[in-house]
Amino acid sequence: MAEVDHLAAERATARFDVEEMKVAWAGSRHAVHVADRMARLVASDPVFRKDNRTMLSRKELFKDTLRKAAHAWKRIVELRLTEEEADLLRQYVDQPGYVDLHWGMFVPAIKGQGTEEQQHKWLPLAYKFQIIGCYAQTELGHGSNVQGLETTATFDPKTDEFVIHSPTLTSSKWWPGGLGKASTHAVVYARLITEGKDYGIHGFIVQLRSLEDHSPLPGVTLGDIGGKFGSGAYNSMDNGVLRFDHVRIPRDQMLMRLSQVTREGKYVHSNVPKQLLYGTMVYVRQSIVADASKALSRAVCIAVRYSAVRKQFGSQDGGPETQVLNYKTQQSRLFPLLASAYAFRFVGDWLNWLYTDVTQKLEAKDFSTLQEAHACTAGLKAVTTSVTADAIEECRKLCGGHGYLNSSGLPELFAVYVPACTYEGDNVVLLLQVARILMKTVSQLASGKQPVGTMAYMGKVQYLMQCKSAVSSAEDWLNPDAIQEAFEARALRMAVNCAQNISQAASQEEGFYERSPDLLEAAVAHIQLIIVTKFIEKVHQEIPGHGVKEQLQALCNVYALYILHKHLGDFLATGCITPRQGALANEQLGKLYAQVRPNAVALVDAFNYTDHYLGSVLGRYDGDVYPALYEEAWKDPLNETVVPEGYHEYLRPLIKQQQLKLSRL
Ligand SMILES: CCCCCCCCCCCCCCCCCCCCCCCCCCC/C=C/C(=O)SCCNC(=O)CCNC(=O)[C@H](O)C(C)(C)COP(=O)(O)OP(=O)(O)OC[C@H]1O[C@@H](n2cnc3c(N)ncnc32)[C@H](O)[C@@H]1OP(=O)(O)O
Ligand SMILES: Cc1cc2nc3c(=O)[nH]c(=O)nc-3n(C[C@H](O)[C@H](O)[C@H](O)COP(=O)(O)OP(=O)(O)OC[C@H]3O[C@@H](n4cnc5c(N)ncnc54)[C@H](O)[C@@H]3O)c2cc1C
């Protein structure tokens, strides 16, 4: 706890129990406790220092990542941490590295696509880090179009092996994290060819490096793909390039849960949907949604605290200046982001529940919810990451000039975060997947098929296509039913409009292609409806703690009415609300901001982030920003000498030359 609390006055105005809000945010008292313990463990360990990260060279940064990962693993073993604790520790170390892909994709790929025998063989090795794995799917020529990958895995019945080969430059694996320098193994996605026939993309476990000296195995060429956006940031990760020259692997290293190749070379497909091959991506997409709320809440925490400390203008008579948080424009830019952080947190929890539910159904050979899982993970991944990336940049601007300093933490947070809009599926590509499913659902409405899950609202098509909002005052917008109806009607009408336009095209494909910009917007509307619905459902639950439910209610309304205001064109164009009702929503939004204002600092305190995790002089818990900024500047390597290196070579001769010229005049 800080000795001087410059934000004490802010904390005193909170009208709710912050400790109970921490529970609502974390999900349970147990979750608060574990997260707290792991965050402090990391913050108190000098090996996990990260304040110097943006000043390290690429090589130093990568070595620092290896060191942190090894130290983290040592602590996990020494302290016998559970999987939940170990994962939290990984998150609080807060440095992208090969470990993320090993645990987040290599292990899940084997779990999801390997037979029991294969899991038995490979997982214990991976769990103990006796091998390090990555997920090698994307190639130089193809990422989004998975079916377009070119790497081949040709079965050779003579030796009972697959021959893995990169036939072209564009077939080089390109991007996999952990591949460049750390991994010993990879799950490689390649076209399976047997008996002269191409059976499409399948996964194979391939050893890449020697377990003795880490040198590449014969026929394997690999390395790092080079520096990436931003200083520090994602450069701690060794995203790699990989080429195979007829590398042989035993047949039993094809991941054979979904389909098999027999000793004779016969291809056998189990009676399961082929899309299960994409299961690892679905798993990671749902975890990316949970991560979005973390990244967004960090940025918002920094911007809210700093906005409460920072003062500009407002005093004509020598009195105190205005805290920038009191400017209505600052509130209207910042509070929707605060509300979004909470919204994403709760929809992330729900998505995690959905994922677990679908996984259990799949185990029981019930594939009915696969499409719902795909649509929700793809759509929520796309919307939450796009909003979060933009929001981090907005928070930087909300912090004025100081937000541009590395010591604010925001430039690095942005640079680390922004590729989330691309990896695990480009956001546009993923939204078009959602749109396809929406169009399929609309087309089935006529046949009387009742949509289920998050599409169930479309079953109310008769009503939703013609309903008129009953809102007649600003307060009416506080009614969740009014919000829900407006969002459902907007999403459905946009989808139906698209479907009607597509049906007038020469073909379904042609229509989809022509209307894809509108389809993107329809998909976003559908996903925003899901987020709003899950927030409303959350607020309807029992929520203990003085004032906690009221605050969440206010944030839920801020989130919904902000989206309505921002996308007013959609709501008006589809006739869901009138211009007057749109204006009333905006009026109510202003009132809600005033309600949030005294609680803003406490609402970000409820995230329970340590100063180490935030990594920002502007977001310090104690609000003592200026001395910290001042001190931080002196730590820059440029300040190690008073007279800079290069002075004698370049500055002095220049100045002297000019002086000489002047003296000759
Ligand atoms: C320094 C560190 C110190 C710390 C140390 C700590 C040490 C120890 C820690 C211990 C920890 C212990 C516990 C840890 C636990 C967990 C850790 C979790 C960590 C997570 C971290 C993750 C990090 C993330 C990093 C991200 C890295 C990035 C990776 C990647 O990017 S991988 C590559 C991703 N690629 C893509 O996403 C490609 C996108 N393209 C596609 O998905 C598809 O091809 C498509 C969707 C575009 C489909 O295109 P197409 O139309 O051609 O499709 P078809 O194949 O023909 O199929 C059409 C048909 O299928 C349906 N469909 C499509 N996709 C799916 C699907 N996924 N599911 C279901 N159905 C699908 C589609 O709707 C069509 O259906 P229909 O025919 O119309 O009916
Ligand atoms: C930091 C980072 C880490 C990564 N880690 C891994 C990893 O560990 N393993 C791995 O296998 N891969 C990894 N990737 C690769 C990543 O999954 C791909 O980059 C991603 O799926 C996007 O594919 P792409 O690069 O082919 O983009 P492209 O598809 O080439 O996208 C280019 C543009 O085309 C547009 N576009 C493409 N198709 C369509 C369409 N059908 N309709 C409309 N617009 C379209 C996109 O919206 C985009 O604007 C990583 C990438 C990054 C940036």
UniProtKB/TrEMBL annotation:
GO terms for cellular component: peroxisome. Gene3D superfamilies: Acyl-CoA dehydrogenase/oxidase, N-terminal domain, Butyryl-CoA Dehydrogenase, subunit A, domain 2, Butyryl-CoA Dehydrogenase, subunit A, domain 3. Residues 17-132 form the Acyl-coenzyme A oxidase N-terminal domain. Residues 134-235 form the Acyl-CoA oxidase/dehydrogenase middle domain. Residues 278-439 form the Acyl-CoA oxidase C-alpha1 domain. InterPro entries: ACOX_C_alpha1, Acyl-CoA_ox_N, Acyl-CoA_Oxase/DH_mid-dom, Acyl-CoA_Oxase/DH_mid-dom_sf, Acyl-CoA_oxidase, Acyl-CoA_oxidase_C, AcylCo_DH-like_C, AcylCoA_DH/ox_N_sf. It comes from the Eukaryota. FAD binds at T138, G177. Residues 479-656 form the Acyl-CoA oxidase C-terminal domain. This is Acyl-coenzyme A oxidase. It comes from Zea mays.
